[in-house]
Amino acid sequence: MGETITRIVTIYLVGITGIWKSIPVGIILKSHPLEIGILTSLGSITTVFILFFFGDFVKKWVLKKWNADKLEKKKGKFTRIMDKYGIIGIGIICPGIFGPITCIIVGLFVVKNTSKLMPYLSIGIILWSFLLTYIATSGIDLLKNWI
Question: What is the reported pTM?
């Protein structure tokens, strides 16, 4: 029982730092793909909502830490996606490409009403968490059978 709780907490906490980190950790810990997808989603969504609620502080921190070129480059990519697909596109497409943390940070600068982005970003995180988990576990299974 203790191993299960440790595994769950570990995947969730790594999920807080991002989708791309949590999935490999879940696989290494031999978790079920459904468990990996759920915990990765919950961890990433936790971070996104915390950053959203502290939006003004996050903006100030980013302006201090990121140089103007880096911020403009990220904003440019997001603006192109938003112009083509709207807020829904940013929320659904970007978490898997740029990561949920980058999405919300840049979203705070690009999207005028960030609260409209949050439901789509949550859906995008869930979709990408499960999709990437499926791809990773299927790929590993394929390699095991092939080797």
Answer: 0.90
